[in-house]
Amino acid sequence: MKVSLIQMNSINDKAANLAAARALIEKAIAEEKPDWICLPEVFDFMGGSRRDKVEAAEEIPGGPAYSLCRELAARHRVFIHAGSILEKADENGDGRIHNTTVVFDRDGKEIARYRKIHMFDITTPDGVSYRESAAFAPGDSIATYECEGVTIGCAICYDLRFPYLFQALAEKGAEMIALPSAFTLQTGKDHWEVLCRARAIETETYFLAAAQTGSHIAGNEVRQTYGHSMVVDPWGHVVAKASDGVGTVTTRIDPQRVAKVRAQIPVAQHKVRIAR
Hints:
28% of the residues lie in helices and 27% in strands. By secondary structure, the protein is an alpha+beta fold.
């Protein structure tokens, strides 16, 4: 199966972001003819204030970001793992929204939806504070789907630091895991690749991480994202990585590689329960 990761520099201009996503997807399709395409986290809108995010959020199903990915999937007969979209949420009553992945098959039919579970509430070493939970309400369930006979698990960005989520996806049959992301430059330069490789090794899956790159404005701050979108194989080898800047990276995955690695080191069979 041929896969393409889209690396973007989304900003607080939804129309511009959707135009950029369309252009990058169509370029990847024309040049690489992939079976499956993944966009980065919050490809539709990044930065701005909490109010800006709420105003940019859309109803799912429907809305311009959702409709764009559905249209392109159906027109080009390709699976699109639509990174994540700002989704309106009225069930919480607190004004927060969801950070939501939606996946479309070759007919443009929605086949999976996942809401980011872990909220990025941290202070980086350079003193920048992130409080994702102020604007976003977390999801509470995992999601997998089938693509060309491969079971794919869903996760988003900060989820990467929580191994139990990926173990749960593997237990549900995931052979490949997609992680749309907007990792910060400060954390990404030290943790991004090692964490992506660790999750691939632990679960013995292909690990595909589409990332945001470059700068955006959040409130009064200029923030930087790390980029380096990558594909890691089940042995932990980085088999493809994006160059700096906006663009795409494409490679092939081999489901038989997953089976081979799992036969060599059958970690799933060796799990034991530890008394507490």
